[in-house]
C-alpha cells in the first residue's frame, strides 16, 4: 500500500509541475487543402475599384494584412445556403448607411434590424451581384450558425468616400468564395506588384559547352574545350532574334545571361558591353543546366569528335569508367567574363543598343561556371573559325 501511495504522490507532483511549465502552444489555423487554391486566388494583389452607392462614389482597396479592426457590427451573410460573415467597423457602418438618412446610428440597432436596413441600403450592389452569381444573397442578424474556423477565406477591405475611411471584412466559406471569385476577378482585376527592387544576376559570357561528368573529370590545366557561340541566332537558342547587321557587330561574339533563363546577343564596346538584341527566353531552357542525358548533343559529347563539341585532351586515358552510370550525367560549362546585379526595374529598361558596365579582360580570362557554380579559371583562345577555352585551373574536388 505504501508503494502505491508513493506512486500516486509522484503522479500528482508531475501534474503540478506540468501545469506550472507554462501555457500550451495555441493550435495552428486549420485550412482544408481544397480551399488553398481559392484562398490564394482571392488574396492576390489587386487594384482599387469604385462602387456607386446613392450619391456617393466609394473606393475599395483590398487590404492583404491580417484582419485586426474591431467590429462595430457583425452580421451573417448567405448566398443561397452558403454561409459567410460580414464585419464592419463604426466608420464603415456610417458610410454604408449614410444614404438611409437614419435618425439613430445603425450600429446601435438590434442586429436583425441593422441587417434589414443595411440590406436595403446595399440593394443597388446586391441585386446585380445576385444576378451575376445566380442565387439570392441575404444579410442576417445572427452568425448563421457558423464560426470563424469554418470560414477559411478572409478578405479585408478599406472603404472610403473621399472624406471618411472605414474597414470591413468578409469571412467566406469555401463554396461561397468559389462562387464569388469570377465576379471578384472581373470587378477587381489582379494587379501584380512591380517588384522593381528585386535583384537579378546578369552574366557576360563568351561561350558555353555541354559535357558529361566523365569529360569534366578528365579535364586538366592546359586542356582545351571547344565552345558554342553565345550569339542567339548562331547557337540555335532563339532563331526569332536575329543579330542586326552593321559595323557595331564586328569582333568577338558575346552574350549576356539574366537569371540563367534570358539571353541577349552582345558585343564588346569601349564603354562596356552593348546589347545587339532584346532579352529573349532561352528556347532550350536553363543554360546553367544541361539537357537530359539522352539528348543528341550529349550523345555526341559522350563520343568526342572534331567540331564544336569536341574536347582536346592532352592526357588521354585519364577518364575512368563509372559502373553506376554517373559519368554520363550531362552538365553545362559556361565561360563567364564578368557579372553584375541589376534590379528588375533596370532590367525592364534594357533594349537593343543598351550598354552595360561589363568589359572583357585583355587576356581573355574567364570563370568556368559549371551548372551555375564557379569551379575554375580559363582563357578564351581562337581555334580556326571558332572559339575554345583553355583550362587554367579547375577545382572539381574542392
TrEMBL record:
Region described as Disordered: spans on this chain: 1-28, 290-311
Q: Which GO terms describe its cellular component?
A: bacterial-type flagellum basal body
Going by the entry's taxonomy, the superkingdom of the source organism is recorded as Bacteria
Write out the similarity annotation. Belongs to the FliN/MopA/SpaO family.
Q: Where is the Flagellar motor switch protein FliN-like C-terminal domain?
A: 326-394
Q: Where is the composition biased (Low complexity)?
A: 290-305
**Record's SUPFAM superfamilies?**
Surface presentation of antigens (SPOA)
List the GO molecular function terms: cytoskeletal motor activity
Listed GO biological process terms? bacterial-type flagellum-dependent swarming motility; positive chemotaxis; protein secretion by the type III secretion system
Q: What species does this protein belong to?
A: Halomonas binhaiensis
Which protein is depicted?
Answer: Type III secretion system cytoplasmic ring protein SctQ
